[in-house]
Specification:
Blueprint (H helix, E strand, L loop, with lengths): L11 E5 L28 H13 L4 E5 L9 H9 L6 E6 L8 H7 L3 E5 L5 H8 L4 H13 L5 E7 L8 H10 L3 E6 L7 H8 L4 H12 L3 E2 L10 E4 L6 E5 L12 E4 L4 E3 L7 E3 L1 H5 L4 H13 L24
Parallel strand pairs: 1-2, 1-10, 2-3, 3-4, 4-5, 5-6, 6-9
Antiparallel strand pairs: 7-8, 8-9, 10-11, 11-12
Helix pairs in contact: 1-2, 1-10, 2-3, 6-8
The structure holds S-adenosylmethionine (SAM) and iron/sulfur cluster (SF4).
Length: about 325
């Protein structure tokens, strides 16, 4: 199992399949002047499989597919199937806006998808449209229902909390856990990419303490639950008599860098060492120069060794070169 220079075990790889997206959430993707990687610069299914094999060979067991929007990738079912068959990979998940999910969810599950995190910021259709732009409540909700019908369990819902856009809607979202055994997770805004999305994220940031107070005021006390895994980034709670879980992901107000177990692979083939930092290591070049699993293993181990100790948001340092849609969350 690879350990970084701070003794953290790094065993979870998040793979971005594309930097394209069918939505344009205000804090993630600008509307204009977007530069997407040309398709020949994206890693192919063969190359992704090679990296996943190398990761498994050095002790990674968990892989999450993300983006941009991973379901835009025409070979997404094939990629899931190839990764799920790799010895040592026991946990294959996806983070998605679920718009394209209903017609393909059964194929994804048959191919080996085990977990899904679905992103919906509010249950209010008008506010959803303003915040997630191009997205509609009906389509995302249909995606969530299709995931549940296909047996994906537990359904995890990602909510990015933004002042004046959905901060009042957190109560309705948390209320979902009363009847359903879902995990509804409230995420603090992070400023990435240096441009308008970063500026929006800084201006509209809502601390977890405020979200929590709002939920408790309307729905009752949140009882803390034991961590399901030491590196679970969410602090989990249960509302009185609820079936599901309310989680808070607080990278700004309560950083969890000390228990980070992640490495990220960008869609254009670079290991991104920390979400909130620009350091990267190119693996695509080695792959395209004929490198095999052993070469990728060496690059990955070097990337693990160079992970920074933690983010430096409090000093005003964040990712400048990449936006969230180019890294995958
Ligand atoms: N398109 C998919 C989706 O939205 O779930 C996968 C990619 S998206 C970049 C992954 C996650 O990043 C989203 O679920 C969203 O919760 C989160 N996210 C995006 N921008 C963010 C920001 N500025 N701060 C905090 N979380 C953000
Ligand atoms: Fe697309 Fe996800 Fe970013 Fe929203 S958060 S723009 S759905 S990549």
């Amino acid at each position: 199992m690879p350990r970084d220079q701070f003794g953290r075990q790094i065993n979870y790889l998040r793979i971005s399949l594309t930097d394209h997206c069918n939505l344009r959430c205000l804090y993630c993707m600008p509307l204009r002047d977007l530069q997407f990687a040309p398709s020949e610069e994206l890693l192919s299914a063969d190359e992704i499989e090679m990296v996943a094999r190398a990761a498994a060979a050095v002790g990674f067991y968990k892989i999450r597919l993300t983006g941009g929007e991973p379901l835009l990738r025409p070979d997404v079912v094939e990629i899931v199937g190839r990764i799920a068959k790799i010895d040592g990979i026991t946990d294959v998940g996806m983070t998605t806006n679920a718009i394209l999910l209903p017609p393909m969810v059964e194929q994804l599950v048959a191919a080996g998808l085990q977990r899904i995190n679905i992103h919906i910021d509010t249950l209010n259709p008008a506010r959803l449209k303003r915040l997630m732009r191009f997205g509609t409540y009906e389509r995302i909700w249909a995606g969530i229902e299709s995931a549940e019908r296909a047996g994906l369990h537990p359904i995890k819902i990602n909510v990015v909390v933004t002042r004046d856009h959905n901060d009042a809607d957190v109560v309705d979202l948390a209320r979902l856990t009363l009847e359903r055994d879902w995990h509804v997770r409230f995420i603090e805004l992070m400023p990435l990419g240096g441009g308008e999305c970063a500026a929006f994220s800084l201006a509209q940031y809502v601390p977890t303490s405020e979200t929590r107070d709002r939920i408790e005021k309307d729905l009752g006390e949140l009882t803390p639950l034991p961590a399901s895994h030491p590196s679970d980034e969410a602090r989990n709670y249960r509302l009185p008599a609820a079936r599901g879980v309310v989680g808070f992901i607080s990278p700004v107000s309560e950083p969890y860098c000390g228990s980070c177990n992640r490495m990220r692979l960008t869609a254009d083939g670079r290991f991104h060492l920390c979400l909130l930092n620009d350091d990267e290591m190119d693996v695509k070049k080695a792959l395209r120069n004929g490198g095999g699993v052993d070469t990728v293993k060496q690059i990955l181990l070097r990337a693990v060794a160079h992970k920074p100790t933690g983010h430096r948001l409090e000093e005003g340092v964040s990712t400048e070169i990449r936006g969230m849609f180019q890294i995958g969350g």
